[in-house]
Structure formats: C-alpha cells, structure tokens
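Weekly structure sync - notes
Attendees: PM, LS, DV (DV joined late)
Agenda: review two folding runs queued last week.

Item 1: First target. Sequence and structure tokens pasted below for the record.
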Amino acid sequence: MGIWSKRSAEALRREALQEDSATSLRRSLGPWSLTALGIGAIVGAGIFVVTGTAAAEYAGPAIIISFLLAASACTCAALCYAELAAMVPVSGGAYSYAYMALGELPAWVLGWSLICEFLFAAATISVGWSAYLSSLASMAGIHAAPALWRAPITLDAGRALHLTGAIANVPAALMALVMGGALMRGAQASARINNVIVAIKLAVILAFIGFGAFHVRPANWTPFIPPNLGEFGRFGWSGVFRAAGVIFFAFLGFDCVSTAAREARNPSRDTPVGIIGSLLACTVLYVAVGLVLTGLSPYHELAVADPLLAALRGGGPSLAFLGPLVGLGALIGLTSVMLVLLFAQSRIFHAMARDGLLPAAFARVHRTAAVPRLGIAVAAVATAALGALFPIELLSELISIGTLFAFVVVCASVLLLRRTQPSLPRPFRVPSAPLVGGLGVAMCGYLMFSLPVDTWLRFLAWMLVGLVLYFFYGFRRSAAAAAAGVAGGVDGPF
C-alpha cells in the first residue's frame, strides 16, 4: 500500500455508476458533444497562435512535417486513451488510469503534470485571444494603452526573463474569468455553447484555407526545410523535430474528452468516437492551414501571436476582406479552447479530491448545475494570473512537456495492464497494442527530450513543488492511505 496503492478497475467502474452523491457528475454528453469537445480544444492555439512561432523559429515551411510527426505520436496516444476511457469511464482521464495501472505516487505525479498542462495551455490561449482582440481593435481604429495589453515579463533573445514595463495583459485575464463563469452554469449548457462555437470557427478556418490557397506564393516554400543555423533545433531536421515537440500541445484536446468520460451518456462507445474522431479531423485542418500560412507569408515573418492575420497581410490587398473575419473567428475559436481546457482542469481537481489527494471541497458538485464549482473557480483565477503576467513563448513550452509526459504514461499503462490484468473487460481495444503503445512511448519520449533545457528545468521545478505537496498533504490524507491505516491518515476537507 502507501505510495504504490492502486485503485482497481472494478472500484473505478462502481464509482462511475454512483449517481446520487454530492460528488457525482451528471451524464449528459453524447458522441457529437464529445467530438465537438475535442475539436473545440484542438482547433485553436495550434492554428491561431503557435503555428507561426514554430515555423519562424524552428521548422520554416516544414512545419507541416512537424504537424504530421506530432499527429503520429498523438494517434498512438489517442488509441491508448480510447481503450482506457472505455474500460474505466471516470473523471480524471490519465490521472485515473495511472492510479489503476501504476499506483498512487505515479498518479499524483501525472495529475500534477496534467494540472501544469491544462493550466498553462489555458493561459497560452488567453494571451493569443488578447493578441487577436488587439489586432481587431486596431483594424477598427481603436488603440488601447499598450501597458494594459502586454505581459510585464518577457523572454529576451538569450531566453532570459526580464521586465517590459507593462502593467498586465488585462484582456487575457478577463477572458479566463468570463469562461470560468460560463462553465459554472453546467456541463450540458457549456457543451451547447461549445458546439455553436466549433461550427463557427470551422467555417472561418475553411474560408482561410479556401481563399488563401489561391494567393499562395510557392517561392515562400523554398527552402522547404531551412538549413540548420549551427544549433540543435534551429531549422534543419532537428528544427522539424523540435517544432513537433513545441506544437505538440496544439493537439491537446482529445485527452480532454477522456476527462469527460464520467459525463458521457454511453462512455464505452461515445468516448472512443470523440477521442479518435476529433484527432483525425483536426490533423487534416492543421496540415492545410500550415501550407497556406507559410505560402502566403515568408516563414520568418510569422513569429507573432496572431500569425493568420500576419499571413493575410502578406498575401496582399485582395485578402484584406478576410482579416476581420479571421480575427473574429480566432476570437471565437480560442474562446471554445479556453472553455474546454478549464472544463478539463476542474475535472482533474475533482478526481484527485475524490481520492483524498486534494481538499475534499474540490470534489463537491453544485446541486443544480452539477459541476465542481470550486475547481472551476481556482482554474479560472490561476489561468487569469498566468495570462496576465507571462509571455506566450514561455507558457506554450511548458504545456508541451506536460502533455508529452501524460501521453507516455498513458501508453505505458495500456501495455502494463494488458500484461498484468488481461481479463479486464475492454469495450475498445488498441489494435496491435504492443506496437502502438511502444511507438507512443518512444515517439512522445523523443519529443520530450527535443525540448529546450530551460523548459525541462522549469518543468522539474514544477514537479518538485508537486512532490512536496503530495508528501505533506496528499500522502497523509489519501483515501487509499486511510483505508489501509497508512500514516494514520483520514479523509477531511483540509
């Protein structure tokens, strides 16, 4: 027992059937809502924000190869997520799977990593949303004070932090708080809002691809893979792989579907559909946008927070009419990403609190809205603070490493459970599991190690804080420890 205590699949399934407790979530999401939940999270930062930076600093026009590499690794992880989500349809996603396969301490480490992933992803989205709002305001002749639209901290050319003189990115913070308020209305209401937003932003993206394709300049794709600048990760093939690691979080979204399995009407069928369907649809869109983006504008001019608008400007006056439409579509699209990420973050809090690793208040569900309101509020406030203070480059790198770590653990969990518990019911099974799971571990692991050293240092610092919290709080109060009498721990609200 202790730090290696595990939760059985049977116990997790029994928990999923509880419908009348104060910590029970309501089953209200069907296959379309789950697929739209995934698309709502995936189609956003990757297209509207980070694609330009990754092309300008790492891969050039070969950013589309980076997307395909990242998608290949994601496909392995998505299949593994689908098997586990169908087997144990509970909130918490990868955290709950790790608790079942690996034990309490690995589950805490992964849960803390997921908190990093969703928190920094939501903050990145809020900064991108603010940049597109600023561009739209400028088009309308409105110029707000820069001190209220920029982060007070930034990265210089040597990747050191320094002050900008700004006060805070106020629109980014307000966006996070508004989305938190929307989520408190309930999962079904949030899903309806998300479905409408997804339809709008897909129409805008298709318009960008359709009209932009007629104005691309093939010369912008030469050289397709820019020569390496003498440093690993700065163009060349090493840059293509580094870009794949940096933009990996652009595929963040299908794993958000797994955190909603507890709220699916038919989780064994609908959750795999939502996970795999959203990933495949978005991969096609990403490649198409990457081609048009780098075809409209030289890749070195795309290192901005609103690359689609920069590309349209590079495409000439004939595409000027698309600027306001794409800017508005980006605002709407990023809104749905924020909604889904805060949704997923609160469900991680909910699952960890039910296991006693976080205060029990995070597991309480509002009587009428049927959502964990405290988790939503904490996620929204923390996101607002990060988005207000830090630059997008720093935020986006921390997301990728957290996401990749979660995917490695999920793929490894499938392999381990196939060996240790082969008789467990599996409504969905990963085809050629040893190959797919092994490739997922290898590819995601390689992409992790391709990330910059300072990203690793910040991630390790985050994990160190998490371990301190676990041993001073979670270990003593976990439900597994209380059941076994470990450390005399008991569940309690604090």
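Item 2: Second target, run right after the first with the same settings.
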Amino acid sequence: MGITFEEASKYNLIKKETLRILPSKCGCGAPVELSDSLRELYCTDRNCKYNLTFRIVEFCEKLNIPISNDIANRLVTKYNLISTYQMMQIGQINDLSLRNTKIGIAGIKDKTFTLSEIAKLSCIDDIEYIADKIFSGFSSFEEFFDELDRSQVTFLNARLGIYGNATSLSVQVLTELNSLREELIFGETVLKIKHIDKNIIRVVFSDSSEPFMNRSEAIEYLNSQYNNYDFELFSQVNESTDILIMNSDSNNEKYRDAKIINDDYVEKLMNNEEIEYDEIGSFKDKSFKPVGSKIYIDSLTNIINRFNEIA
C-alpha cells in the first residue's frame, strides 16, 4: 500500500530531483516504493529477503532482543525465514553467535500479547497503524478472519470509521490482510495471547447510529462512559453478539437472526426451568440484558439509559 515513484512525481509529493537520485529497484530486483509517510523506501516483493531482514531487526528491537543486521540477514538467508514470528523458534538452531539473541527470546516466551500487539510484531507499517482498531475484541486471528470473510470491506469500513464512498483504503487493507493471513495465524501459535480482563461487549448495528454521526463515534462514546466494559463493533449477528442496536428498521436480516437466537435461548431457559414466563423482558440485578435475551435488542438511546442505570 505504498506510493510509487510515478505517483510521487505526478502529485508533486517529492521533488523530481530527489526522486532521480533514489534507487528505483531493490537489491532483489523488485520495484521500490515510498512509504505513506514518504520517509522510507521499501521493496514491493513480500518475499524479499532484504525487506524481511529489516522487519526482523525491528521485531527484535520492539522486544528488546539483541540482534545485529548481519545476524538477521544470515538467519534469513541460511534458514529461508519468511516471517518475523519465526524468530521465536531459533532456539532450535545450534549457533554460538546467536547466544545473546536466544537468551533475549527465551526471556519473552512467557510474556502475553494482545492480538493487536502480535499483529504489530509483523513489523509491516500499514498493519501497525490500524492494528488497535481492527483486531480489538477478538480472541484469535481465526475468529478475526471469519468475521472479515463474512463482511470484508463493510467490516473494515466500520472498524476504521470510513463511511460514504471512501472505500479504497479498506480494499487495500483487505488485500494486505489476506496476504498476511497465514503469517498472523502462525504468530499466534508462537506468542501467548493475553487474557483481557474487561468485559467485552460485542455490538452490531441493525440500521442507523442515531443520535451519533456514525458507528465509530457511538462506540467511542460507550467506551468513554462505561470503563468497566470494552465495547467492540462487529458487522454480523451470531451467538457471541451481545447487543443489536435497532433504532428503526426491524425488517432486516440482522434483526431476524437475533430474534431466532433469542427465541432459542428463551426456549432452552424455559425447558430447564431457569426462568418464569412472566420474567421475560424484565431487567434484574446488574445485568444490562433483559431476562431471556441472549442478544439485547433496542435503540441506542435505550441501551445507553440501561447502562446508566447499572453504572
């Protein structure tokens, strides 16, 4: 998702005199592009060993693991590394020159990381900048990619706060994420996932985000007001959904899916004699959901009022 030399020249992003003295190709032969910040050059070949060497050095720097450029380059070349996360496995390599690096890696094997932090350790700038927005609330990359596969650009637009016709960024992010899928899932197997103490509330919008301008603004408000919860925006209704915000339109697929889930939930509770019929729909104790609702379906205003009552 970089900027080509042609684009930089066409839109006068960098002086033509500067562009003429910059290398247009990497040592591997692939074209070079400018980063979005225009401060760095990088190879466009995902498998470029020089690019991966740079990423591995950055990976180690983030984790305070001692490594030199020469050692990183030797590891990439000799052992055909294709991912930064493979650094967590070099303990299996019998090489005395790696002693300090191995000690550093051993020191972080018991540490835990959120999905966002693991994604940032891919050391790919385009993913680092947006990791907190798109991965928060997910317990695994498999879960994230299941959601991404279902809604794709729609999901990314909502997570990134993009509305209207500005979808080109989301299309680029989607392409980048799909190319990184296996690498991220592998990263999760060699780094421990951090348990999130906050109660995650999974929110889906059925229609509008009134009284807020957009869905991202609504989620930001909820998180700023109710610190005991972590409200996360999702695009599809399923068994793990906590809230379906429905301000007006009940004649849509999301509402019907949520209604089926709630009806099945009520039937199960009734069969197990866990609730009485006249309790259904009432609010009890400090639960934000009405009795009999696996998914709380209501307007955003009413949902905010409910959280105010139990705060």
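Discussion on item 2: The chain is about 45% helix and 10% strand.
Action: LS to circulate a short write-up before next sync.
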